[in-house]
């Protein structure tokens, strides 16, 4: 479905993307790597995992076309973690030109691209976007997870590893825990074979799309000053706020009204840099609750945003 | 049941003992440890896990009373991995005197004792033997696993960690994979609560005891020169062979006859040292098969052993 080149002997089942990234970091570290680039902003845990494994996490800015490859190319790094189908948390799609640039950079420098394909199953508008790995399977580690489509508690993820690196990643997996929980793997395999996963995803896409639409409608009505981004896919949207707004204070006030939102700063390498914004997860909320939440959020705003 | 001091906030569920030892090694390494003692002979994987995590595995000889604490005390190590209830692979029980010596050593040097309590549920003769951890919960990491009582594919193990070390071990677990498979944990909890685990173990003990008895009978009859050790408990026995026998050749010839046995050398730090012996796992074999296997083994012997 994702257009990945996934020969069985290159697939490593792991305990979610957390362990997947851990294994790749360890394999890279063992062959001398010391610095890995991450998108800025990105999931905070990724920076922590990279550091925890003795590597430096080098932030590289993201714009509306995805990671800025020109900036990436100015750093000396052994790998980069990207989410091309729906960047977290901006929701931007890596543009075709940037994809080509990124793969060209990787092939020129010998660096590895770690493709975190966490919510590609949820695309609501526009044509489907294939995985980067399908274009360069010798350069890209593809990483998927059941956490965003079934449940994080399953701790099931999958890596598709370039042939030259497979043995090293497997060695780390075996030495760390011998393998992932087998009953869950067998159950998931059956779930996929029977077509249940496809049915499940179709149902979720319908439901999440309706929630996304409810979010957009509510934002337009109650927070017309917010610029909504990254809504063609995924489980969350980014609402960029007018420059003068204090993102941290708004989040705090919203929380006081029972609305749990995070500011964009939470995900930046430097929390105080860049334009203010809110990351709004909508997938787990019923439409009425989304509407009420945005109303409360608008009330929390010091002035009409 | 094991007499361990197991407050819930000190228990870390992990992916089997493999990950449990990995987490403890990482936590020790992070606080400056560089050398960990292991019993000699011991499970080969333990030495590999220790080395894989940047530590040196220091072998310390085992005799019929368990690990030789006097020898251990001559090394400078931050921890020691022991299996006091049924040493692997010799099957020896750590004697009461050695237990006291070991804990005294640990308390004097500040070293950690890692108690691998892998098959304590299977005790056939003599009074039950409690866990070492119950005597010194601030000094001992207790480690158990579902691998030897249910199935290795579950990847469920448990650590009980000294209070001073719990946060560090949890931090490594969270950073490595966020947590272990949740459906399995919930299922196992229900299995224990309903008394099913106790019933399961009573059934296994009966069955394994009969298999052990079949093994002893067959060895006495067909290999009267072998000295059988460590049979009061566990899932395997050690058959010490007459000095002149070539353990490796015997294993090879037995394998040629379809009998899969391992020599004691496989588990030693120096495979060519010490008396020849065979490690005979019997728990998974029906009694008739055990009898036939020992007959074949006797045939493989160059001379009456």
Describe this entry's structure for a reader.
2 copies of one chain form a homodimer. The first copy, chain A, contains 9 helices and 12 strands. By secondary structure, the first copy, chain A, is of the alpha/beta class. In chain A, the strands form 2 sheets. In chain A, strands 1-8-7-6-5-2-3-4 form an 8-stranded mixed beta sheet, sandwiched between helices. Chain A has a 4-stranded antiparallel beta sheet with strand order 9-10-12-11. The termini of chain A are far apart. The model of chain A has no long low-confidence stretch (mean pLDDT 95). At the A-B interface, helix 1, helix 2, helix 5 and helix 6 of A face helix 1, helix 2, helix 5 and helix 6 of B.
If helices are DSSP runs of H or I spanning 4 or more residues, what is the number of helices of chain A?
9
- What class do helices, strands and sheet pairing of chain A give? alpha/beta
How much is the average pLDDT of chain A? 95
The SSE string of chain A, one letter per element, is EHEHEEHEHEEEHHHEEHEEH
Q: Low-confidence parts of chain A, pLDDT < 50 over ≥5 residues?
A: none
Number of strands of chain A: 12
Main beta sheet of chain A, described?
8 strands, mixed
What topology, given as strand order, has the largest sheet of chain A? 1-8-7-6-5-2-3-4
Helix content of chain A: 25-40%
Q: Radius of gyration of chain A from the CA trace?
A: 20 Å
Biggest interface, chains and residue tallies = A-B, 25 and 25 residues
Shape of chain A: globular
| Oligomer kind | homodimer
């Amino acid at each position: 479905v994702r257009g990945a080149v996934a020969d069985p002997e290159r697939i490593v089942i792991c305990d979610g993307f957390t362990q997947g990234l851990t294994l790749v970091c360890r394999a890279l570290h063992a062959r001398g790597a010391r610095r890995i680039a991450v998108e800025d902003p990105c999931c905070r845990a990724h920076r922590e995992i990279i550091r925890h494994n003795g590597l430096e996490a080098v932030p590289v800015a993201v714009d509306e076309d995805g990671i800025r490859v020109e900036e990436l190319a100015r750093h000396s790094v052994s790998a980069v973690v990207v989410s091309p189908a729906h960047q977290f948390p901006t929701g931007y799609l890596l543009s075709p030109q940037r994809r080509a640039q990124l793969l060209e950079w990787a092939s020129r420098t010998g660096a590895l691209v770690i493709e975190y394909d966490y919510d590609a199953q949820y695309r609501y508008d526009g044509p489907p976007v294939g995985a980067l790995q399908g274009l360069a399977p010798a350069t890209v580690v593809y990483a998927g997870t059941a956490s965003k489509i079934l449940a994080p508690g399953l701790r099931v993820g999958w890596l598709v590893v370039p042939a030259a690196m497979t043995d090293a990643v497997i060695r780390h997996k075996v030495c760390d825990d011998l393998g992932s929980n087998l009953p869950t793997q067998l159950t998931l395999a059956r779930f996929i074979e029977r077509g249940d996963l496809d049915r499940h995803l179709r149902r979720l896409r319908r439901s999440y799309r309706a929630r996304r639409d409810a979010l957009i409608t509510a934002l337009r009505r109650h927070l017309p000053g917010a610029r909504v981004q990254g809504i063609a896919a995924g489980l969350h949207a980014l609402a960029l706020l007018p420059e003068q707004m204090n993102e941290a204070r708004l989040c705090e006030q919203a929380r006081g009204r029972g609305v749990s939102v995070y500011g964009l700063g939470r995900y930046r390498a430097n929390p105080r840099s860049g334009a203010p914004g809110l990351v709004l997860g909508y997938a787990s909320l019923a439409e009425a609750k989304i509407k009420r939440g945005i109303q409360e959020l608008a009330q929390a705003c010091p002035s009409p945003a």
